[in-house]
Amino acid sequence: DQQVKQNSPSLSVQEGRISILNCDYTNSMFDYFLWYKKYPAEGPTFLISISSIKDKNEDGRFTVFLNKSAKHLSLHIVPSQPGDSAVYFCAATYNNNDMRFGAGTRLTVKP
Amino acid sequence: SQTIHQWPATLVQPVGSPLSLECTVEGTSNPNLYWYRQAAGRGLQLLFYSVGIGQISSEVPQNLSASRPQDRQFILSSKKLLLSDSGFYLCASLGVGRGLNYGYTFGSGTRLTVV
After folding, report:
1. Distances from the Cα of B59 to the Cαs of B36, B46, B52, in angstroms?
2. In chain A, what is the straight-line distance between the N-terminal and C-terminal CA atoms, in Å?
3. DSSP labels for B44-71?
4. From the list A36, A89, A96, which residue is nearest B32 (CB)?
5. Which residues in chain B have Cβ-Cβ distances shorter than 8 Å to A36?
6. Is A70 an interface residue toward B (CB < 8 Å)?
7. Are B92 and B37 a contacting pair, CB within 8 Å?
8. For A81-90, how does the pLDDT look when each residue is reduced to its tens digit (9 = 90+)?
9. What digits encode the pLDDT tens for the residues A25-56?
10. Is A43 near chain B, with CB under 8 Å?
11. Please, which residues have CB within 8 angstroms of residue B103's CB and are 6 or more apart in sequence?
């Protein structure tokens, strides 16, 4: 049961432009959402999160938007840099023991 | 800050052989610990989680098992590996007092290939 979905397996953007990664979820019980970044042969690293009581959280070049009515969240990276090239995982949870991950989106930022 | 040590980094095992992957955590006490698997082209699948010594919860029935013999040690095992067990195995931790606004801390993973 895929409760967290990332429908775009890959995304390519030009350096300096905006990258928008999307994520949809089906479980209305989720109350915390996170984005992780993963390089090949490494574990994911936490990037940014948002509570369900908020609709936006910003941290430097990274902003996460949450639309609860649509069960949709997105990660915006502005401006995109070549070092941002990685696989980005969306995750959601309603307790610490049940974090569900999407399949990931591979972002490529071209110089 | 928390650090997770996982080994080995890569492993090639024949079908039917046993498996033991170890994960140790530094920098926190009484963490929640997790084993995830990433199959090729798939997302991260939660396999097991533990909230304390000897306490294991299984998310997916399979020929894998987990044990937590010490507070900061989490072991993933199998008596007989299957081809379908191939994947990238990740250990993760959520430390006491760390809210989800910090996310899980992941280890560097073990690439298991069953041949």
Report:
1. 10, 6, 16
2. 38
3. EEEEEEEEETTEEEESS-SSEEEEEEET
4. A96
5. 103, 106
6. no
7. no
8. 999 999 999 9
9. 999 999 899 999 999 888 899 899 999 999 99
10. yes
11. A34, A36, A46, A47, A49, A91
Contact state of A100 with B104 under an 8 Å Cβ cutoff = no
Name the pairing type of β-strands A32-38 and A45-51.
Answer: antiparallel
Contact A76, A65 (CB under 8 A): yes
- From A101, A72, A70, A99, select the one nearest A87 (Cα to Cα): A101
A98 touches chain B (CB under 8 A): yes
Q: In sequence order, what are the residues at sequence separation of 6 or more whose Cβ sits closer than 8 angstroms to the Cβ of residue B115?
A: B12, B13, B14, B15
> What's the residue count for chain A?
111
Tokens of A13: 């953007």
pLDDT of residue A97 exceeding 80: no
